[in-house]
Amino acid sequence: MSTTPADVLSVAQLARLRIEEAALDDVTERFGRILDLVAQLQQVDTEGVEPMSNPHDMVQRLRADAVTEDAQRDALQRVAPSVEDGFFLVPRVID
Amino acid sequence: MGLEVHLQLATESKIFSGAATRFGAEPNVQACAVDLGMPGMLPVLNARAVQYAVMFGLGVGARIGKRSVFDRKNYFYPDLPKGYQVSQFFEPIVCEGKFEVPMPDGSLFPVRITRAHLEEDAGKSVHDAYAGQTGIDLNRAGTPLLEIVTEPDFRTAEQAVAYLKSLHSLATYLGISDGNMAEGSMRCDVNISLRPTGTEVYGTRTEIKNVNSFRFVEKAIAVETERQMDILESGGHIVQETRLYDADRNETRSMRSKEVANDYRYFPEPDLLPIVLDDAYIDNIRAGLPELPGAKRARFIETYGLSDYDASLLVDSRTTADFFEAATDISKAPKLTANWILGDLAGALNRESLDLTESPVSPEALAGLIVRIADDTLSSKLAKQVFEGLWLGEGTADEIIEARGLKQVTDTGALESLVAQVIEGHPDQVTQYQAADEAKQKKLLGFFVGQVMKASKGQANPQRLNGLLRAMLDSG
């Protein structure tokens, strides 16, 4: 399994992480080691084994459909950098 | 073509939080700490969202995933504060099914449902109200959605629209969604690809996102098909991409042109455990399902002898179907009742922009009118006047007939004297009639019918009148 700096950069881009040029080789190397371990795990025969989606051996508990939260806009928006007319304002995004 | 429909489930609270889901609230007053993705907040699943998903699955005859799992779909956008959407990718709650869609010509079009899964809706962005900034409203964030995916079974826009209407009807029958398309309760993505006639392999597809009315779905399909055809015929290639339908310009536009291909890096959501449903739970929901449009339609055809077409129109909404059954129960004349509901009543409601639930004419009142048509008290012409009275709240059909003096003259003696009067009054036409050939006689008969009708102020029974006139004219 060979991980390239380009792979690292594309994953970093998807995760919105900036990787300094100087650190790229080191990160690529460590990334590669993790992926090698995963590749090794992939060798294990899992035929007939149900995939584990959660380490807890429990099932989801459900809550009744009821409104339990009051409007807390003022409190919640106190930490927002920019707010107007009740909207959170963020740098313009155009798709 | 294949379709993906996002159906907002009509729960009171959100899928993972206790915030309200009501439409039209002030920005962010229905967004709690969980919906905002505040650190440390954990989701707790809404039982009703699960129940509604299962109801839908049973309604389309699908296999229910007895163990389903939530996954994170990772992407960055400001209206998705957590940086991921909780969805179901690997193990959805509703698995493969088959849904029969009634087409306008009365035939049934089978659509294969691939899957349907639960997920949370994102917030809304407002792009043009704030200079250089985007406003974010997270009221919608966390509203439960059921995403319903089909196999690429559609060949025409008509099939796609029929499917969507049918889905809409099913969702409102089940009561799992309000189906309000203008408020975004049902949003549709269309995947379109073309292939040359006679070949098996589909071409590259494009996806048109978030079309929110039946009419726009039809138009979007038409313009996108044409666009792809133009490109292919001039030797070009289709780029796999997401496009947006612009209703004002009636065109589709590329949404994300230079962004790297989407890679959502799905993985199981560690904050939620698998949903496990046992047979008792599913059977209990199945037992509580109302009669669904398909079954109701078949029953209407079978029990009431209605045409495929009328039955489809009547069962389209549960309100109309219930209205029909309530009225027919009294009138005992199903076809006539269907005609009046789909004809004069629908027309009048439409003119006043009223919904059937707001109709000033109740099923009982309409049935009262139909009884009087069926027993020959009213001709169809007089019936329209009585209907007008019902609409204006003048009382029951019988009261209106009495008050307006609209009884049809069926009494033979009375009719005979009217006919005799008219014959006496028009000796020339009588001579002409007696000398004429059969075709001409028919025409002249029309003249006499008109005259008698006039004399009776429209209240003569036309069938009886015809017979009487003929007999009296022929006997000279």
- The number of distinct structural domains of chain B comes to 3
Relative strand content of chain A: 5-15%
Gyration radius of chain A, to the nearest Å? 22 Å
Oligomer: heterodimer
Instruction: Sketch the major β-sheet of chain A.
Output: 2 strands, antiparallel
Helix content of chain A: 25-40%
Shape of chain A: flat
| Spatial strand arrangement across the major sheet of chain B | 6-7-10-1-11-12-13-14
> Mean pLDDT of chain B, as a whole number?
91
Morphology call of chain B: elongated
Number of strands of chain A: 3
- Helix and strand sequence of chain A: HHEHEE
Strand content of chain B: 15-25%
| Gyration radius of chain B, in Å | 30 Å
The count of strands of chain B amounts to 16
Residue runs with pLDDT of under 50 for 5 or more positions of chain A: none
- Counting H and I runs of at least 4 residues, what is the number of helices of chain B? 15
Number of helices of chain A: 3
Structural class of chain A: alpha+beta
Helix content of chain B: 40-55%
Report what the structure shows.
The complex is a heterodimer of chains A (95) and B (476). Chain A is built from three helices and three strands, in the order ααβαββ. By secondary structure, chain A is an alpha+beta fold. Chain A is flat and about 55 Å long. Chain B is an alpha+beta fold and 476 residues long. Chain B has three domains: 2-192 and 258-283, no CATH class; 291-404, no CATH class; 412-474, Arc Repressor Mutant, subunit A. Chain B has helices at residues 47-59, 157-174, 214-233, 279-287, 293-304, 308-315, 318-331, 334-351, 363-374, 380-391, 397-404, 412-425, 427-435, 438-455, 462-474; strands spanning 2-8, 45-46, 67-68, 71-74, 84-87, 97-102, 108-120, 124-130, 133-137, 144-150, 186-192, 206-211, 242-246, 251-254, 267-268, 275-276. An eight-stranded mixed beta sheet of chain B has the order 6-7-10-1-11-12-13-14. In chain B, strands 5-4-15 form a three-stranded antiparallel beta sheet, with no helix packed on it. At the A-B interface, helix 1, strand 1, helix 3 and strand 3 of A face strand 2, helix 1, strand 8, strand 9 and strand 16 of B. Strand 1 (62-63) of chain A pairs parallel with strand 2 (45-46) of chain B.
